[in-house]
């Protein structure tokens, strides 16, 4: 959607305001007018404008006071000052106070349009520069957080290996009927659980090298499915639409099976009673069929053909407010959840050069689609 730049014209002469509005609107600018300084400040506080054309001499508050107030309210809209009393002092004072340009009345329409266009172009460039800067600052922050989380997870893994090794030795020497054997056993279980969290963190961060090889996606997913099919409760319908074979992707089959396991588990857990449906499908799609709302948000296809693994459910759906956080490590809405399933899915998909899309209707269900480049 194209948004027309918004301009505020402030002048105590209504006829002048009207003709400025007619002129500027003819160039598709979105124009508002007002006839005194206090209304101008009110407009600037309530709405965001891209530019103000401001008269200097007005009764209640002159243009300089409007600029001063605007600055103290931290409103950064650029101002072109317009003055009828064409003294250079006024123009210089206005520029010193922060106006970006000035027009001496009566001015030529061409001159006014050129000044407006220049300033709006500069503002658009400045906005783009700021957006790019904040994006790259955000990326740097995420990278350094990722590095920190990675080294913590590695450190924990090493320490936990030592804990488990020592517990194993101790358990070997403990008589079978010793009362404290149970305590050692529980400590061992807790260490195991903690190791699995560290491992999942490393997967999310892409620190776990996959053993990638040509992998038949349908065959790999069928293996995972066999585990679920046996456990699906009566009343829950699991439908599967996989081709006999393919598409073939360059992937670690174990990691792909982990992706499917996490997605099916979530789908299953979203269906509160045992009535509902989970549908799985695999097909080959072109890069043009991949929706633009996807994660990672900066993902761009580098191949034409992609495999699409879809997991949909008729479960509780996802509230709009949760969607941004879904793939964050430790985000969970479940009492016993760890919030690691989707972040692991994300880490694996990223490491395989793919992306994820998600559609959800609270109350009606969700669809997760994983796109992976076909070999
Ligand atoms: N199919 C789904 N339907 C509804 N909500 C979902 C679905 N998939 C994920 N979610 C939401 O996303 C959250 C994060 O999912 P994720 O798999 O990362 O963690 P979890 O399932 O809570 O815990 P676990 O680490 O055991 O997987 C869930 O708590 C849930 O709120
Ligand atoms: Mg989960």
How would you write the strand order of the largest sheet? 2-1-3-4-5
CATH-wise, what's the superfamily of the largest domain? Histidine kinase-like ATPase, C-terminal domain
Assign the CATH class of the largest domain.
Alpha Beta
Label the structural class.
Answer: alpha/beta
Let me know the number of strands: 12
Average pLDDT, all residues: 90
Continuous helix count = 9
| Shape call | elongated
Largest sheet: 5 strands, parallel
Features:
375 residues; alpha/beta; Rossmann fold; Heat Shock Protein 90; 3 domains; five-stranded parallel beta sheet; five-stranded mixed beta sheet; 9 helices; 12 strands; binds adenosine-5'-triphosphate; binds magnesium ion
Question: How would you describe the overall organization of this protein?
Answer:
With 375 residues, the chain is an alpha/beta fold. The chain has 3 domains: 6-107, 3-Layer(aba) Sandwich (Rossmann fold); 138-204; 213-373, Histidine kinase-like ATPase, C-terminal domain (Heat Shock Protein 90, 2-Layer Sandwich), CATH 3.30.565.10. Helix content is 47%, strand content 20%. The strands form 3 sheets. A 5-stranded parallel sheet has the order 2-1-3-4-5, with helices on both faces. Strands 7-9-10-12-11 form a 5-stranded mixed sheet. The longest helix is centred in the middle third of the chain and has 65 residues, at 109-173. It is elongated and about 100 Å long. The two termini are 37 Å apart. The model has no long low-confidence stretch (mean pLDDT 90). The chain binds adenosine-5'-triphosphate and magnesium ion. Magnesium ion binds next to helix 8.
């Amino acid at each position: 959607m194209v948004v027309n730049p918004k301009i505020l014209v402030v002048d105590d002469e209504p006829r002048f305001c009207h003709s400025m509005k007619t002129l500027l609107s003819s160039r598709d600018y979105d124009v508002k007018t007002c006839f005194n300084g206090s209304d101008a400040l009110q407009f600037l506080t309530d709405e965001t404008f891209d530019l103000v054309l401001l008269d200097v001499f007005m009764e209640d508050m002159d243009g300089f006071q409007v600029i001063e107030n605007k600055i103290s309210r931290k409103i950064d809209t650029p101002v072109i000052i317009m003055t009828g009393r064409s003294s250079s002092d006024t123009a210089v004072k206005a520029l010193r106070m922060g106006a970006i340009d000035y027009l001496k009345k009566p001015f030529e329409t061409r001159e006014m349009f050129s000044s407006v266009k220049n300033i709006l172009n500069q503002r658009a460039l400045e906005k783009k520069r700021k957006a790019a800067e904040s994006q790259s600052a955000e990326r740097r922050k995420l990278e350094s957080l990722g590095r920190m989380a990675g080294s913590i997870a590695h450190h924990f893994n090493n320490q936990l290996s030592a804990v488990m090794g020592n517990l194993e030795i101790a358990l070997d020497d403990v008589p079978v009927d010793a009362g404290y054997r149970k305590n050692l056993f529980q400590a061992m279980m807790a260490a195991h659980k903690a190791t699995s969290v560290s491992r999942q963190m490393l997967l999310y961060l892409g620190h776990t090298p996959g053993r990638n090889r040509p992998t038949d996606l349908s065959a790999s997913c069928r293996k995972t499915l066999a585990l679920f099919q046996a456990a699906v409760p009566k009343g829950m319908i699991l439908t599967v639409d996989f081709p006999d074979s393919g598409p073939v992707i360059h992937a670690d089959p174990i990691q792909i099976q982990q992706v499917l396991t996490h997605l099916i588990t979530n789908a299953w857990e979203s269906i509160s009673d045992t009535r509902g449906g989970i549908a799985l499908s695999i097909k080959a799609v072109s890069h043009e069929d991949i929706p633009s709302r996807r994660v990672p948000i900066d993902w761009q296809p580098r191949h034409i053909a992609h495999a699409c693994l879809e997991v949909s459910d008729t479960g509780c759906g996802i509230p709009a407010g949760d969607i941004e956080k879904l793939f964050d490590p430790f985000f969970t809405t479940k009492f016993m959840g760890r919030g690691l399933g989707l972040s692991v899915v994300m880490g694996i998909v990223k490491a395989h050069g793919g992306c994820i899309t998600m559609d959800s209707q609270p109350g009606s269900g969700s669809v997760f689609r994983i796109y992976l480049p076909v070999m």
